[in-house]
């Protein structure tokens, strides 16, 4: 959730199943990786943050990894015909 200090996992029905709090204000994107697709990579930003905010939250802009119980799906390669 951008500007929300966290990311969340939802069921297909829209029910929030899990929430992961982060030490940064602005997570931007997530993707699964690792041999078993059970590592979540989380990108964050420090864009539009003041120097004081960056000093207070120095991990802003970092990439985090998180082991998760639910495996992601491998991306299907796009082949242009």
From TrEMBL:
GO biological process: L-ascorbic acid biosynthetic process
Domain SMP-30/Gluconolactonase/LRE-like region positions: 1-45
InterPro entries: 6-blade_b-propeller_TolB-like, SGL
Signal peptide: none
Sample GO molecular function, one term: gluconolactonase activity
Domain of life: Bacteria
Similarity section: Belongs to the SMP-30/CGR1 family.
Protein name: SMP-30/Gluconolaconase/LRE-like region
Species, as recorded: Kluyvera cryocrescens (Kluyvera citrophila)
């Amino acid at each position: 959730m951008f500007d929300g200090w966290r990311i969340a996992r939802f069921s297909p029905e829209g029910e929030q199943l899990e929430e992961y709090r982060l030490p940064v204000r602005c997570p931007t994107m997530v993707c699964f990786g690792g041999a078993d697709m059970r590592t979540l990579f989380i990108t964050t930003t420090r864009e539009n943050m003041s120097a004081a905010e960056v000093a207070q939250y120095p991990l802003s802009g970092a990439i985090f990894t998180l082991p998760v119980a639910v495996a992601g799906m491998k991306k299907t390669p796009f082949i242009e015909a």
